[in-house]
Amino acid sequence: MTPANYRTLPFSQNYLIGFHPHGIISISAYNFMSNGTGLMDRFPNITFHLCTLVGQFYLPLRREWFMMHGIINCSKESLKYVLGDRRKGQAAVLVVGGAEEALDAHPGKHVLTLNKRKGFIKLALETGAHLVPCYGFGENDLYLQAANEQGSLVRKIQTWVKKLWGVSPVMFHGRGVFNYNLGLLPFRKQLNTVLGAPIPVVQTETPTQEQIDDLHSLYVQRLVELFEEHKTKYGVPEDKRLEIH
Q1: What is the pTM of this model?
Q2: What is the chain's mean pLDDT, rounded?
Q3: HSE of 227, CA atoms in CB hemisphere, 13 A
Q4: Tens digit of pLDDT for each residue in 145-184?
Q5: How confident is the chain (245 residues) per 10-residue block, as mean pLDDT?
Q6: What does the pLDDT read at residue 1?
Q7: Which terminus of the chain is less hemmed in, N or C, by CB atoms within 10 Å?
C-alpha cells in the first residue's frame, strides 16, 4: 500500500474522515490502524480510529485485537464520544458506502453509494469535527465479484439478504496461496490512498436540513475534485468519472 498526497491535519481539531470506496472488505482502510505505511509518522499528533460494525466486537480476542489498534464501532454513540473529545487530535475513519456499496465493487468501476448518506454530515455538524474526503485507488481491483447488475435476480436476492441481516452476501474470489486464479487472498494490485484537505465545520447543536444538504453537497464536490486530481496517476483513464448514487 502506498498512501499518497497526505495533507496537513492540524492537531487542534477533530476529524471525520470519509473513506471511499468500500470495496469487498475495505483493505485500503487498514492504513489507518497501523504505521505500516508511515501514517503515524506523517501525523504524529493525530489518533486514528477506524470504524466497523458493532458485530465485529462480539468475538473475544478479535475484539481485543481491534481495540488494541484503535478500532471503534460505527454507532452514533461511539462516533460522538470520539469526535466530541476535548483533547482534540482525534480522527474517526468511516467507510461511508457500507454494505450497499460493496455490491458495486467491480474492477475498473468507481461507483459510490453517497447521495442519501447524510448521517455522517449531521454528526460532523453536531460535533464540529472537520470533514476529510479520502479515496482508495485500486480497492475495487483486489477481487472479482459475480455479475450483479441493478435489477438482476442476483442483485435482488443480495439486497433482500442485506436488509434482513445488515451485511451484503457478496459472491467474490481472489487468488490462492499457490495459484493466481481462485482463493480468498486479494490479487496483487497496488493500492494508493489519497487524503483530501479538511473541510472546516462550525459546530451546530441542532443543524437544519438545509445546513446538512449544503455541507453534503460541498463534501461530494471536494471528493469528486480529489478523484479527478489523482485518477490518472493511479491508472484510471482520463474519461472515467465517479458514479455517485
Answers
A1: 0.93
A2: 93
A3: 26
A4: 999 999 999 999 999 998 888 888 999 999 999 888 899 9
A5: 63 96 94 89 92 90 92 94 89 95 96 97 97 96 95 94 88 92 93 94 96 98 96 95 96
A6: 47
A7: C
Give the chain as a DSSP string.
Answer: ---B-PPP--TTS-EEEEEE--TTT-GGGGGGGSSTTSHHHH-TT-EEEEEE-GGGGSSTTHHHHHHHTT-EE-SHHHHHHHHT-TT--EEEEEETTHHHHHTT--TT--EE--TT--HHHHHHHHHTPEEEEEEEETGGGSSEE----TTSHHHHHHHHHHHHHSS----EE-B-SS-SSSSSBPPS---EEEE---B-----SS--HHHHHHHHHHHHHHHHHHHHHHGGGGT--TT---EE-
* Grid cell locating 75: 454507532
43: cell is: 501525523
